[in-house]
Amino acid sequence: MFHTRGNLHRRAYQHKVCRTIELMITEAFIHANDHLPITGKSGKTMKMSETIDDMSAYTTLSDWVYHRLLWSQEPKLKVAKDILMKVEKRDLYKCVGQTQPPKDKPFDKEKVKDFERDIAQLTKDDQCGGQTTLEPEDIIVDIVSLDYGMKSKNPIDHVRFYEKNNLGIAKEIRQDQVPQMVPNQFCEQLVRVFTRRSDSEAISAAEQAFKKWCEYQNTRHKCGDSFSMDLTPIKDIQLASANDNHQPGPIKKAKMINFDNEPRQ
Predict the structure, then answer these.
(1) Do 208 and 125 contact (CB within 8 A), yes or no?
(2) For the segment 31-60, what is each residue's pLDDT rounded down to a tens digit?
(3) 91 near 82, Cβ under 8 Å?
(4) Exposure string for 94-116, b = 16+ CB within 10 A, e = fewer
(5) pTM (2 decimals)?
């Protein structure tokens, strides 16, 4: 159960595309925060960020906020609208790479702004090209923590079990009862870097700067599309026509069987 939970976070909930969309929607809401009043208790209006203290206002927040921003014609909401339009058009922020810190030296999430500033500064380095430079606001560093529900602890150590012949007493599981195929580490960190700019020069500059940053941090850089956790399985029918370069071929139509057991396309 805990393994399944971790696997879902790895392959779905914390997938880089999901995280990109989350980041973009969050940015849109932040930009709209001061310009989209919400009515709360006794008719009082407030910012979205203030509704957490007023349940009457908080419970009105739903998908209408997203669509209200998406179709707004108000100049003050234009920045938020443009971000959400990019989400709708799949013009997402580009992930230029990801890395993992050493097991015993996780990165401090409080230093994200420092990391963004350092990577932006590296784009001005001659070793990274230096022709296209980025500002800290062009860079997003996203630190994702994956675990089994209790950070670095083994959750099974905190679960009690009942025996069928003694349902009145809950016991800890003994070490000799634990399967041998268990992980020796129950948490890990992923560090992803995105760029808000979509031009190829900026993407290349951000990627080169992130590679250099990884060298300084003594971590291994992996390009945005190569991490195994982000791979999506390809159906066998797509692989059937792969060429010599191992590129997936066109999807073939599946064969249909009629009631007379005669195959047809």
Answers:
(1) no
(2) 999 999 999 988 899 999 999 999 999 999
(3) no
(4) bbbbbbbbeeeebbeeeebeebb
(5) 0.77
